[in-house]
Write a structure and sequence with these properties.
This protein has 3 helices and 10 strands; from the N terminus they run E-E-H-E-E-E-E-E-E-E-H-E-H. By secondary structure, it is mostly beta strands. A hairpin with a 6-residue loop joins strand 1 and strand 2 (about 20-30).
């Protein structure tokens, strides 16, 4: 299998539902890239949050790239700031929410995928804003 190289600007972006307060940039996608996991940049609007959820077999990892938020895992709250890493084991109920005044950006990986990438791809195509590209370019070391 060849090495995969992408630019952030070339990765598709989706909202799962029009009313969602977060959206996803698909970086590693099992269907497109033949991998067994999914990696996204998850962008939370101010006040945005994931719905409460748990995964049967998948581990989920959130790396905070910018912004601030909090995680609620099994009823316990933990603050999240740039540089924090949250690792959620299978079966653990969790919510990640933006508690700050600006967008929260997380590099999120779920392994195995558990059809998360398909759920995202079935959503509504969304464009990254120039501000998103600036923040992510800075956080990921890409040229603006």
């Amino acid at each position: 299998m060849p090495v995969i190289r992408k630019s952030l600007r070339d990765c598709p972006c989706y909202r799962i539902k029009a009313t969602d307060t977060n959206y996803f940039v698909l970086l590693a996608d099992p269907t497109v890239d033949a991998v067994t996991w999914v990696t996204v940049v998850e962008i939370f609007e101010p006040g945005g949050a994931t719905p409460p959820n748990a995964h049967v077999h998948a581990w989920e990892q959130f790396v905070v790239l910018a912004g601030e938020g909090r995680a609620i895992c099994d009823g316990r709250m933990s603050p999240l700031v740039r540089g924090d890493i949250l690792i959620v084991p299978p079966g653990l109920s969790h919510v990640v929410e933006n508690s700050g005044p600006n967008k929260l950006y997380c590099l999120t990986t779920m392994m195995p995928d558990e059809q998360f990438a398909a759920l995202i791809r079935a959503g509504i195509p969304t464009a990254l804003t120039e501000d998103d590209l600036r923040v992510l370019g800075s956080a990921l070391g890409e040229p603006g």
